[in-house]
Amino acid sequence: MGITFIGGGNMATALIGGMLARGQAATAFHVVEPVAEQRERLTARFSGVHLHPEVDARAVEGADLIVLAVKPQQVRAAARALAAHLAAAAPPVVLTIVAGIRLADLARWLGPSARLVRAMPNTPALIGKGISGIYAGPEVDAAGRALATGVLEAAGEVVWVASEPMLDAVTGVSGSGPAYVFYFLEACEEAAQKLGFTPAEARRLAYATFAGAVALAQGSDAPPATLRAQVTSKGGTTERALAVMETRAVRAAIVDAVAAAAERAQELGDAFGSDA
């Protein structure tokens, strides 16, 4: 199987590293990366991977899957450069992990024969702990979907969605989600320091508490609401803390924040897909 990455940044590096760890041969990969310093870093890290400074026939020849992994403002130019080298007959599957770029816009730049898959990964993919929402156009068969799944599973979990607009919701929940977690950790650290702990102690307490709670939840069949109730004694410390959060409408604010992120993802899709 041949895979070409257009863009050799952090996410491409994570996906390639994950696939190599699963036994994929380095020689199966071609990476188009215009920045010389990044090509040098990729060469040092992934011996045997083919590096190219620009999209050309050599970069895509024999590719079963092409992964677009550039910045949103670069994707239109990258797609148009790629279009000149896509075979009209049995073209490779093109997987875009570019935030906000819709398949209709990508098809307009690549041409009508393109077989397109769109995914929204998140930053924990950089350490193999990510989760990606993914959607395929109707022109992509089961084999093409399996190719895209195989790439993304190298960096974490995969959730297929039934319609492309649901990827905006994925962005709101998990794409932006790591920032919500970091925000909560910041607050816990701040609270711990105000209660007398050193910064290092505060961070250790916050991180371990969050990691342990998530592990406990993942190991249980009970929903979070049940687990919360189990640790909330009547008249106890946890009940008082949660009462403050409810009074301040923390839950409602989180729900509204996720919805706002999803709405912004839709707006960015409108902007990035414009030919203006």
Structural account:
With 276 residues, this protein is of the alpha/beta class. The chain folds into two domains: 3-163, 3-Layer(aba) Sandwich (Rossmann fold); 177-266, ProC C-terminal domain-like (ProC C-terminal domain-like fold, Orthogonal Bundle). The protein is 52% helix and 13% strand. It has twelve helices and eight strands. It has helices spanning 10-21, 36-45, 57-60, 75-83, 103-110, 142-153, 166-175, 177-194, 199-218, 224-230, 237-247, 250-272; strands at residues 3-6, 29-32, 50-52, 65-68, 93-96, 115-120, 130-136, 156-160. Helix 4 (75-83) links the parallel strand 4 and strand 5. Helix 7 (166-175) packs across helix 12 and helix 8 packs across helix 9. The longest helix has 23 residues, at 250-272. The two termini are 37 Å apart. The model has no long low-confidence stretch (mean pLDDT 94).
Radius of gyration using CA atoms only: 22 Å
CATH architecture of the largest domain: 3-Layer(aba) Sandwich
Oligomerization: single chain
Instruction: Write down the CATH class of the largest domain.
Output: Alpha Beta
CATH homologous superfamily assignment of the largest domain: NAD(P)-binding Rossmann-like Domain
Mean pLDDT figure? 94
Ends: how far apart? 37 Å
* Portion in beta strands: 5-15%
Walk across the major sheet and give the strand order. 3-2-1-4-5-6-7-8
Helix content: 40-55%
Characterize the main sheet: 8 strands, mixed
Elements, N to C (H/E): EHEHEHEHEHEEHEHHHHHH
Number of strands: 8
Number of domains: 2
- What sort of overall outline do the alpha carbons produce when their principal axes are compared? elongated
